[in-house]
């Protein structure tokens, strides 16, 4: 069966906060679903299937595909659960794309969500790793990211001040995004004087823990052409979930990003991503990633990421704006985070990003990131794919 063209035709997300005691999981999910259906101009009766996921290992609550039906609207519909760690949100989007592209469904509702306020992130990450080889030397996410940052600094001479510039950028961008949890500008000195978590990572270098949900509706070409004024066409996807043990990782470089980027740009015929992309929504859980991973993506030469950031090229109004939404440093409901990147890229293509809109967006790239240094990529376009 030939692959069919697929478009995002509606998005919805909650107003993310550190704690949402006013709602349970079903109600949180329902908020995002209702907004996405409204944006697409349809009702739940028009949806053919539901794809849903979160970091269930964090909360110790399984079978979200079953118990969330009253919130997701999945009653009497196929409901598929996907979860791949930190990449869950982007995996959901990629899974939804393939479900529609295969011809199996006309319209799919994709939902990512998390109540981080009711979970133990560090405990869950630590116990997820091999008890003999990894667990004793890996205390949660921040320590692993610190190893990446230290390795990069040793190779290329970058500093924590360079990384702080990334955090300052994203927190400034977040002020234009009403959905972001952290909407207050910070300075370089604010970052560098905030508590040290794991050298060289300071408190303001890293993402928060958020409660929130995001929903995206994907449809086939026939439906999108008839019912959506400006669809967000999915041009290509790529992913690399390639490491098993922490000792396998090439610390200081994100090989999974480099390989996924090469694949997705090849699929789309993109020769010069820095010139051909108009905006990137990068799953960037800490500031150093905003330097290192741009190099791995092939936007700049190795070791030149900090220079690119300091030039202002990635700021709003710059050559290639990154994270107009404020990104993960401003908001992180983990199971939804990669899907939020996808939704924000779609908003840019559809011209619905309001104060965070980048002018004249033809191509946008969204990404996902997860444990053991995994990477997902989705390429969004204003025009239909040429395949």
Topology:
Elements: E1 6-13, H1 25-40, E2 49-53, H2 56-59, H3 64-67, H4 69-72, E3 79-81, H5 88-101, E4 107-115, H6 121-128, H7 141-156, H8 160-174, H9 188-193, E5 196-198, E6 201-202, E7 211-220, H10 221-227, E8 232-240, H11 255-268, H12 273-276, E9 279-281, H13 289-296, H14 305-310, H15 327-330, H16 334-350, E10 363-370, E11 374-381
Parallel strand pairs: 2-3, 2-4, 9-10
Antiparallel strand pairs: 1-7, 1-8, 4-7, 5-6, 8-11, 10-11
Structure description:
The protein has 387 residues and is α/β, with parallel strands linked by helices. The protein folds into 2 domains: 6-120 and 210-227, 3-Layer(aba) Sandwich (Peroxisomal Thiolase, Chain A, domain 1), CATH 3.40.47.10; 130-208 and 236-381, Peroxisomal Thiolase, Chain A, domain 1 (3-Layer(aba) Sandwich). The protein contains 16 helices and 11 strands. It has helices at 25-40, 56-59, 64-67, 69-72, 88-101, 121-128, 141-156, 160-174, 188-193, 221-227, 255-268, 273-276, 289-296, 305-310, 327-330, 334-350, and strands at 6-13, 49-53, 79-81, 107-115, 196-198, 201-202, 211-220, 232-240, 279-281, 363-370, 374-381.
């Amino acid at each position: 069966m030939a692959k069919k063209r697929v478009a995002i035709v509606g998005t919805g997300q909650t107003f993310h906060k550190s704690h949402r005691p006013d709602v349970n999981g079903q109600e949180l999910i329902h908020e995002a679903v209702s907004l996405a259906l409204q944006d697409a101009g349809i009702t739940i009766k028009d949806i053919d299937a539901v794809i849903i996921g979160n970091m269930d290992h964090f909360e110790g609550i399984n079978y979200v595909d079953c118990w969330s039906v009253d919130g997701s609207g999945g009653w009497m519909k196929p409901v598929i659960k996907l979860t791949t760690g930190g990449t869950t949100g982007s995996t959901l989007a990629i899974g939804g794309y393939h479900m529609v592209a295969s011809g199996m469904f006309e319209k799919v509702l994709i939902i990512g969500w998390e109540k981080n306020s009711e979970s133990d992130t560090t405990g869950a990450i630590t116990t997820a790793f091999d008890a003999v080889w990894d667990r004793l030397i890996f205390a949660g996410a921040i320590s692993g990211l610190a190893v990446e940052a230290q390795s990069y600094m040793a190779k290329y001479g970058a500093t924590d001040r360079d990384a702080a510039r990334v955090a300052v950028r994203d927190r400034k961008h977040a002020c234009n995004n009403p959905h972001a949890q952290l909407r207050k500008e910070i300075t370089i000195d604010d970052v560098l004087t905030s508590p040290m978590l794991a050298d060289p990572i300071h408190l303001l270098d890293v993402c928060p823990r958020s409660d929130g949900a995001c929903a995206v509706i994907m449809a086939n070409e026939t439906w999108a052409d008839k019912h959506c004024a400006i669809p967000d066409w999915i041009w290509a996807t790529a992913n690399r979930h390639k490491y098993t043990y922490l000792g396998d990782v090439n610390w200081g470089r994100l090989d999974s990003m480099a390989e996924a980027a090469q694949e997705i740009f090849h699929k789309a015929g993109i020769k010069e991503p820095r010139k051909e992309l108009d905006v990137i929504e990068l799953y960037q859980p800490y500031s150093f990633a905003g330097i290192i991973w741009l190099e791995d993506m092939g936007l700049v030469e190795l070791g030149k990421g900090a220079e690119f950031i300091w030039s202002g090229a990635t700021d709003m109004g710059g050559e290639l704006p990154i994270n107009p939404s404020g990104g993960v440093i401003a908001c992180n409901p983990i199971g939804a985070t990669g899907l939020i990147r996808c939704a924000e890229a779609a908003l840019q293509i559809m011209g619905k990003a309001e104060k965070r809109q980048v002018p004249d967006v033809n191509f946008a790239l969204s990404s996902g990131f997860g444990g053991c240094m995994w990477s997902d990529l989705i390429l969004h376009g204003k025009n239909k794919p040429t395949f």
